[in-house]
Amino acid sequence: MFTGIIESIGSIRALTPKGGDVRVHVETGKLDLSDVKLGDSIAVNGVCLTAVELPGNGFAADVSRETLDCTAMNDLKSGSPVNLEKALTPTTRLGGHLVSGHVDGVGEVVARTENARAVEFRIRAPKELAKYIAHKGSITVDGTSLTVNAVDGAEFMLTIIPHTLSETIMASYQPGRRVNLEVDLLARYLERLLLGDKAAESDSSQRPAGSNITESFLAANGYLKS
């Protein structure tokens, strides 16, 4: 588990094909690896990876074909900057929100607007994730815990302050950029809970009309406050 508070901007040193998938070598910059051992988890742009090598100036991890297909990891190349966060510990401050490091889908930056010293981004999520994104709710973008400032269908707005721009890779975002998205875990669990007894049925039988739990549905049932 992670908090979505980025600890360092690292960079991809190499992507090496290995037995049908890829081994990624990451230089970790200012990230303190003194307490990291083989088998520990490190989030790279929001993707939870397992350290299999610790050469001293970074780490290496194996990236499965499933992960490559379901995230924006395929867009990375040697030299690409990446957001890094070590897994949380029992004494870690939860400054963001609980993040699993399991990407739910790939979104796209569709607009960037300067607003005083901040930058506003409009991001389009996959349609199947739209129901989990709520105004003033939390979302993880490339591993960064952020607050949703507005929602319009499958698109949502973020306002990024200067500190976040300087401590993450978001300063480089331009329209067309693909980003890893992880929705709030609570929204996932809430959807499952609201299925009630139907949760024990197979997917085909429990979703004849789709599990269309929307922000308006949650508000009408007292789960959101205006």
UniProtKB/TrEMBL annotation:
Q: Name one GO molecular function term.
A: riboflavin synthase activity
Pathway(s) where this gene product acts: Cofactor biosynthesis; riboflavin biosynthesis; riboflavin from 2-hydroxy-3-oxobutyl phosphate and 5-amino-6-(D-ribitylamino)uracil: step 2/2
Q: Does the keyword Acetylation apply?
A: no
Q: Where are the Lumazine-binding repeats?
A: 1-97, 98-194
Where in the numbering of this chain does the Lumazine-binding domain appear? 1-97, 98-194
Q: Which CDD domains match?
A: Riboflavin_synthase_like (cd00402)
What's its catalytic activity? 2 6,7-dimethyl-8-(1-D-ribityl)lumazine + H(+) = 5-amino-6-(D-ribitylamino)uracil + riboflavin
Q: What is its EC number?
A: 2.5.1.9
Fetch the Pfam families from UniProt.
Answer: Lum_binding
So which domain of life are we looking at?
Answer: Bacteria
Give, as one word, the top-level EC class.
transferase
* Keyword list, A-Z: Repeat, Riboflavin biosynthesis, Transferase
Q: What does this protein do?
A: Catalyzes the dismutation of two molecules of 6,7-dimethyl-8-ribityllumazine, resulting in the formation of riboflavin and 5-amino-6-(D-ribitylamino)uracil.
Report what the protein is called: Riboflavin synthase
